[in-house]
Every structure is written in C-alpha cells, then in structure tokens.
C-alpha cells in the first residue's frame, strides 16, 4: 500500500522545538507515513538534520495583511469582551503607533476596520477579506505549484498563529488537500491568536478544545482533536539525564552549593524582571549568611536581547551563574531565534539539578513540575514601576491563569519581604506546590504528556481515513 504523504509545515521557527527536535518524525515514520517538511523558515532542516524538505522561497504577503490581521485580532477581542462581559480582553491589545505619517495612516485605517467588523459576522467577513488578499499574492501561486508537484495527502501546520501560513494553507484547501493546525501555546486561544482557518485543529487538552469551540463558533466539535503537545516529552526522556557531578562540571557549577533556577521573561511580559532576580539574589545572600550554601542559575528568555540584567548579574556574580539557552539566531526577528536539540538536554538537567524555579508567570512551572520541583511566581510591584511601564500583576488576570485548580498550583510571593522565608521553607521541605502543580499540568497538557506525538499521528490517521 502506498504511504500517505504528510507535509509538516513550518511557517516560522516556533514549531521546530516540538516537531523537528523531538521523536515526532520517528514515530510518524514508524506508523508508515512519508514525511516531508514544508519549510518557510531560513533554518535548513536538510542541511542541519538530514530531513526531507521542500523549501518555500517566496515569502511575499499582501501589503495590507498586517493591518487586516491586527484589525481581526482586535475585533475578536472586542467581541469576546462584549460576549463574556469581561474586561480582561482589552488588556491583550498592544497600543497603536502614531509616530510618523505612515504609522498614523496604518493605525487610523486599522481602527476604521475594527469599527466596521467588531461582531461575529463581521469577523467572518474580515477573515474572508484576508483570504482574498492572500490568494492574490505570488506566494499563493508559488505554494499551489509546490503542492501540485508533490501532491501531499495532508498539510499539518505546526502553529496557528503565523500570518506567513495563510496563503500556503489556502493553496492546500483550494486543491482539496486536508489541512490541520496545531494550536501552539497554552495561552493562545483567549488572546485571539488563531490566524489560520483549517479543516481540523489539534489542541493540548480538553480545556483548550472547549476554548476553541467557545471563541470560534464557526468551528465544529468534530474538527477539534485533543492530542497534547510534544513540548514536554523530552522531560520524560531519561537518556538526557546527566549525573549531578557531570552536569555541574559541564557548566562550572559549585558541587557544594544548592542552586535555585531563575527563569527570565521577555521584556513585554515582565519589563522589570531584573529586579526580581535582584530580590532573589538578596534573599540568597541573607540565607547564606545564616549557614545556607545557595547559588542561582539564571536562564534567560531565549528571545530577550536586552542588557537589563547585566548590572544585577555583575553585582552578584559570586551567587549568579548564567546558563543561557542553547538557541541559534538565524535572523533578526524574535521567531528567527531557534532552539537546538542540545537545549533539551540542558533544560532537562537544569530542572533535574535545581532545587526549584522562580519567575514571573512563565510556563516553566510545568517543565519543573515534570521533574517534581516547586515553583515561585513573583506577584508584587517593584518600586521602579512608573507610568508607561506594564505592571506584571495584569498577567495573572489573563484567562489561561484561570485554569489553575487552586491558588496552591504555584507558590505566590506577594511581598518582597516574604521571599527569604518562602525559599527557606521550600528548601526545608515545608512548602511545595508539586501535587497541585501536577493537577494544573494535567488541565493544561492532559494526563499523558509522553504520548502527544503518538496521539498527533493517530489523529492524522483518523483525518486521512
């Protein structure tokens, strides 16, 4: 019997971690699929990984696409605000730019579109308009010709949030090729980040399926498959595990110390993030003065290129050890900073050999829960907060944090003065969020985090049959 040919489509680099560097490809091949990576990124899967790939060289998009996409997102958020009577949705919006004539025109045009299309029917019309614009591009014709030549049985898009994927997926649909979009991140559905329309959607959990149907009434239940996400599978791959001595030697860590991981955030989410690192360093210094022997592993956010932490790290270099993620910058955009397979091993061992993690509202809580390690979320204002700087407190009001089974799913630090005591209690085994955190992990990623790749291929099989 002829193998079914699946195009695994990378509109940008964010899906590489899930679908190129895990066992996803091997599992698909074991199930008898012919897998070709349809690659819109500047990362060569053929040269770097030896994968069979078809490169998309035409990256044209309609010049009005950014304006219409932004209008679509804001219109959806307006509809959600009115439909659910909830003021959280406007907080997902980025401010308009009025610097220079070009930006003024773009902003005013976008606002006019939002006024015109902020209804459920309006959004459907707006999406149709976007599709019409993208069908007129040379990229649409280019992708159609590639699909005509290679004749895949299905196109699996690794993220639902990239505008670069619209024309390619329209070409597939117009040729009658089934299309699937994987919903990439745990917070994406309420934030109106579903850019593409496909025949089917694969989601992490029952909760995410519920959300897709709630926010997108034009999607039917039978179009949504719950598969989990490959994102956490490497945490269960014990071949990545190093001994403590080996890991500490590789990264020049002090074997006599216990390390706390500080997981950095991007500047949008936590603009004053460096001061939380400083607070942790001060708490560690006080505890070390009371006969503890602690250090901090600082792992930055891979797409943060700011120098904002430098002064804090320099002032505390006896305590803070930098372990940068092993990611590769292949372009200037945030989604052109790509993970490498080596980073899986590093992250596995950072989780395994740290006592716990601290951060501002990051999904690393789940990475550490997979290793049965606690997590502190900072939830207090810094004195440096002033007008024009975003308060991190609004992050915890977002819809995806309402999925917590209880407020014990993480350890919240709501006052800088409590931090030292919380650290001490965790180290003494008197405070933990592991059991409640595991329940939260199940709500977000399902009960079988090791089976996601397999479930995705089973779902693809179902769609093709």
From TrEMBL:
Full protein name: UDP-glycosyltransferase
